[in-house]
Amino acid sequence: MIDTVIFDFDGLLVDTEIIAYETYHQILDKHGFVFTKEEYTQYYSEKTDTLNAENIIKHYHLPYTIEELLQMTFELEEKISSKRVKLKPGAKELLAYLKANHYHIALATSSFKKRAVNILQEHDILKYFDTCVFLEDVKHSKPHPEIFLKALEKLNVSNKNAIVLEDSENGIKAAINAKIDVICIPDMKIPSKEYLDKTLFTGRSLFDVLTYLQTNSSDDFTKKDEQMKIIEIFNRDPLLIQKLLEVWESSVRATHLFLSDNDINHIKEYVPQALKEVDHLLIIETIRKSLLVL
């Protein structure tokens, strides 16, 4: 039974990837270079600040030391993010649920402590974490498992009862190397299918993680593999939920859905071919539980 959740930070809990891109974009623009989101996603996403600084200096022949460029990026990022770094959808709701239900909660981030703590405090969510592991606390960066193993050690819990929440391929690799189950909520750079297939499931937002934990902590609904397949189909077809909402818009937040045979047939018209072998009652229950957290 899951009793521990370990969060990544950038791109998973907070929407900082776009700010990192804008920081590098502004610095390089001053030196006459065009820097696109595609370049950032391909070459700099998922890397540590120090490694990115080193690579940018080498690639663009910038007249800075690594320490100077790091200081420059930190100051510029702070200025850009002064308008508030946004939390990812479902972040507060998931953290509140975990705390209320006595889960062990850890943060494992490749960000520097000062930067991460400032953002967590700004959103009043530092209080939810039982422990945090920052860049300064480890010798090896992801995909090395050290950061997750250290989080488990600080919590004094087993990897068998833990899950990691990640957005990046390196994060997924690190969790696998630590022998911890992982859920992926992709950000700007979507991990390869090879590694997405190794996760428990790939969600659209942290609300999907909340649904997963709520569902799998109940005694009356245990078919989690089928449920996660359905949620992934919802993620691939965002219009599906809207179509379903139209069927019973006044009943979504009820404790139970009372659907007629006509309603069921209407729903099944919009369910992809892949779901034809799945029990329609399972489909209905999954839809209900998913919509309750919207």
Q: Span from first to last CA?
A: 25 Å
Helix-strand sequence: EHHHHHEHEHEHEHHHHHH
Using only C-alpha atoms, the radius of gyration works out to 21 Å
Determine the number of helices (DSSP H or I, runs of at least 4 residues).
14
Strand fraction band?
5-15%
Q: Biggest sheet: strands, sense, closure?
A: 5 strands, parallel
For the biggest β-sheet, the strand order reads: 3-2-1-4-5
Count of individual beta strands: 5
Uncertain runs: 218-223, 248-259, 271-281
Shape: globular
Q: What would the average pLDDT be, to the nearest integer?
A: 81
Query: Helical amount among residues, as a percent range?
Result: 40-55%
Output the structural class: alpha/beta
3D structure, described in words:
Helix content is 50%, strand content 7%. It is α/β, with parallel strands linked by helices and 294 residues long. β4 (162-166), α8 (169-177) and β5 form a beta-alpha-beta unit. It has helices at 17-30, 37-43, 49-60, 66-80, 91-100, 113-122, 146-155, 169-177, 193-196, 206-216, 224-236, 238-247, 261-270, 280-291; strands at 4-7, 104-108, 131-133, 162-166, 181-184.
